[in-house]
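Dear colleague,

Thank you for sharing your sequence with our group. We've completed the structure prediction you requested, and as agreed, I am returning the results in plain text so they can be pasted directly into your records. Please verify that the sequence below matches your submission; if there's any discrepancy, let me know and we will rerun it promptly.
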Amino acid sequence: MLTLYNTLGRKRQVFRPVNDRVVNIFTCGPSVYQRAHIGNFRTFLFEDIVVRYLRYRGFRVVRGMNFTDVEDKAVSEALRRKMPLRKMTNATIREFIREMRLLRIAVPEYLCRASEALDGAVAIVKLLLKRGIAYRHGNNIYFNTLTFPRLGVLAGIDSSTWPVPRHRFHNDTYPGMRWNRGDFVLWHGCEGDYDVCWDADIGHGRPAWNIQDASIIRGYIGETLSIYCGGIDNLVRHHDYSIAILESLRPYPMARFWLHGSHLLVGGKKMSKSTGNILYTGNLLGKGYDAGEIRFFLIYGHYRRNLNYADRAMERTAGKLQTFRERVRSLQLRGRRASRARECALSHDVQRSFERAMDDDLNVKAAFDDIAEIIRRPAMDTLTPAEVKAVAGVLDDADSVLQVMKPGTARGAAMSGRRRRSAGR
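Please find the predicted structure tokens below.
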């Protein structure tokens, strides 16, 4: 059985969906004030593995994802560039979808901009005001965190220690992983006619970041989500704020399982403009890696553990994949001699090993290493073409999840001498 580490409760649990007919999943999307880097894509790739493995296991999955196109950072960036917000975010969204497809990330069934969920956000704020959970202060509207006793349940924060004197936090988010022990903003009141603000029943303004996921989920899904995924950065504040908003309105939990992916580091440090270590897919394509190799590097490791990028590590991992691809290609060529497949002990070993590792909280590294070891066994060379065809079929099934066995598109520089030597190992 598939077991997943549920951040809610901090324990592994057997996965059981809320709805047997369809598994509803929501995944935090990109903030589109700037281009997504490979650390962002590590999170989106882990989420893709979740979706693909559930489908491999026979579930029907519907995934939603948001584009955060209205928030403090986007507003500031549009002002800095002296360009309309919509024009700026349109370009970033187009680039993001292109890179999703490049990295073989299945495009979610519904993609929604925060700016397109404005009516839903306004409706939520009106309900929260009516119930005395939200209140006005100046032009803004805030969520009174003392009205929700379970605040912090996901991050493990005890909200009973919250200070009674009113503290308000006006920004969409704040640096670091600390809790803001006070009320968070739901609606930014605006003055003037700048294009980031709208006229609404609750006043001229724009929805705050922390209400946007709740608005989109409430608009699309009328039940508890089976899974909610996101990066570890969003565990503190953002996801608990979303829980507080939705569970103040609906008499059922927001999600049954919460999965959080850890950071990608570069040279042992978190990517940031100040350190100058931000990497994009284009940087790696320019080094001669294909898209499948980039995808493989970013998924080859457990999603709950930090992954460190270094040129040498990327080289080794790509070389490992190239060796594996060559072996798979050899098996496929042998299997073509047979008109039909015949299952054998080794085909069962590949399937069992893959599923055993993936059922263990989506352990992609163990799954890949186990099947790579099996197809290297000397016994594989003694199989009949029909048996080899069965092995190749099981590998194809595994690759419906991994999406790395076929070479991907490479752009930019040709392979360096070092990369050629790696490919030969």
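Summary note from our side: The CA atoms of residues 33 and 73 lie 7 Å apart.

Kind regards,
the structure core
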